[in-house]
Amino acid sequence: MNVQAKRLTVYIDEADMHGDVPLYEAVVRRLLSLEAAGATVQTGIMGFGKHGRVHRKRLFGISDDRPVTITVIDNAAKIERISDDLRRLVTEGLIVVEDVLVVMPDPA
Known about the structure:
Mean pLDDT: 90
Strand content: 35-45%
Strand order of the largest sheet: 4-8-1-9
Radius of gyration: 15 Å
Number of domains: 1
Number of strands: 9
Shape: globular
CATH class: Alpha Beta
Oligomer: single chain
CATH topology: Alpha-Beta Plaits
CATH architecture: 2-Layer Sandwich
Order of helices and strands: EEEHEEEEEHE
Low-confidence stretches: none
Helix content: 10-25%
């Protein structure tokens, strides 16, 4: 069975903070409180954003403010509510919403 859904992706930097908590953690905790279906946080190897500053993992694994993405897939109504809420939390970065087709495995 296939299901139409929305994917919300947040692009931020590893060093971004919300108060004394990393922003990616604040976002995930907010997604949990908004009852999102789930969320995944991934760090990038290298990237740059609107400021033109390159972010990457350096020698011996020391971070140079690596890029972070947070991905959520849920129904359209839930993603709309989530994106409205996250807009206030993510003051720098990028929030992208896309249509996706979720391919559900066939029951055994």
